Every structure is written in structure tokens, then in C-alpha cells.
Amino acid sequence: MAEGICPDETEKRSRMNDEYLATGFGNVDASADGKAYEKCLSLLDSLPYYREYKQRSYELLGLLPGVSVLEVGFGLGDDAFRMAELVTPGGSVTAVDASARMCELASARNGGEAKIAFCQADARHLPFGNARFMRCRTDRTLQHIHCPGDAIAEMARVLKPAGMLLAYDNDWGSFAVSGSDRNTTERIENCWRNAFVNPWIGRELKRYFCEAGLSEISVYPSVSVVTDFELADQV
Question: Which of 31, 150, 206, 222 could bridge to 124 as Cys pair (CB 3.0-4.6 Å)?
Fold first, then answer.
């Protein structure tokens, strides 16, 4: 039996076939299936490795009551909510994301209870004056941004003197899959890493920090190992 598909459905299927989570996070609002990104972010936030490095990032930032924080690329807002608890009372969290969809979702989850301001903005053109925040954090966002050095320079600009910037991101150049067929395995590895705008951003962060005029820079490498196929497929 022949399958009948209307033009709109054909276009939607084409977009979904071309779309890949690695590439799509750069423009979630243009996604054919926004729920996939919500599901992915929720899954990652639930995994022990991600929870541990996120908690470590809060500790490194020294978040205490009264501290003002800027989160660049907040996704569903989970980190912003946790940091808001740590800087209360007296502190504040301002969170920006390029996606209007994410702003809407995070704002709805907030419900006006936490002292967080969610807004849509380009990380390379932050809508804030100089020396506005005591802390700035970005998590797995720079891998999706063209000209990430501009985003880091902007985050450095809005930091107060003696402020602190923390960036966590991936080095997909070190991404590895264990497989029995070498050619297939290499093709999978290359396909995944090349889907990102900045697959080597993890190893390039220190250079960008130096170029932005930041000092006293520390690097903390970590490795995530996934041995379950179904979980790896979802991640």
C-alpha cells in the first residue's frame, strides 16, 4: 500500500531526519521536536556524573548568601534553581538562554518562588552593563556557539573585579567508542564529534580565558564512562 504524506508532513520528516541533538541544541526554537531536547536535558541532569560535576561547580564558585550569579545557557533552569537556593538570602541569579522555548519552560517551572530572572539573550551580546555580577557560570553551552571566545569575553566583561567565571564543556576530540569493527567505530566517533560547532572547546577553554584577560585560571579535567548501550543511545 502506498503511503500518502502531505507537503507539511514531508517537510517535518525531512527536518527530523536532518536534525541531530548535537547540532540542534544550537537552535532549539527551530526544532521539529522540542520535547526531545527537554527529555535529553532531564536525563542528563539525573545521571550521577552530571550531578557530581554540577555540585562541584557550585562549590568552586563559592556560592554563599548575598552573591549575584549569571548563568549563561540555562536550558530547563535546574542549575539556576539550585544556585538560587545557595545564594539566598540576599543573592540573586540571572539566567540567559538563546532559546525562547527554554525561557518559557524555565519561567513556568519557577512560578515566581525563587529569586531568578530568566531572559532570552545571545551569549555573545549580553544585555548587561560592565561589572554587574560576582559570579558567572556556563555549562555545556559553548560547544554549540559560533565564536565562543566572544561569549567568554562578554562574561568576563560583566564580572565584578575579583569575580569568578566557571565554564564546563566537552572535548569531543577525546570521545571514544568501544566497538568490534574499527571502521564502523571510527565513523560513529567522527559523525558525533563533527556534529558540534566546537568539538574541541574543552581543550580550548584556557586559551579563551587568557584572551579575555582572566587570571588565576585552573583546569579540572573529568571523564564520563557509559557502559549501558540504551543509556549511551539516549545521551
Answer: 150
77 vs 41: CA distance, rounded Å: 10
Span 208-233, mean pLDDT?
94
Q: CA 131 to CA 36: how far, in whole Å?
A: 37
Global pTM reads 0.88
Q: Which of 59, 75, 76 is nearest to 164 (CA)?
A: 59
What are the cell numbers at 103?
A: 525561557
Q: How many percent of the chain have pLDDT more than 90?
A: 77
Return phi, psi of residue 234, to 5°.
Answer: -70, -40
| CATH code for residues 22-171+197-234 | 3.40.50.150
What dihedral angle (degrees, nearest 10) is formed by the CA atoms of 7, 13, 15, 21? 160
Q: Are strands 159-168 and 92-97 parallel, antiparallel or unpaired?
A: unpaired
Cα 36-42-48 angle, rounded to 5 deg:
135
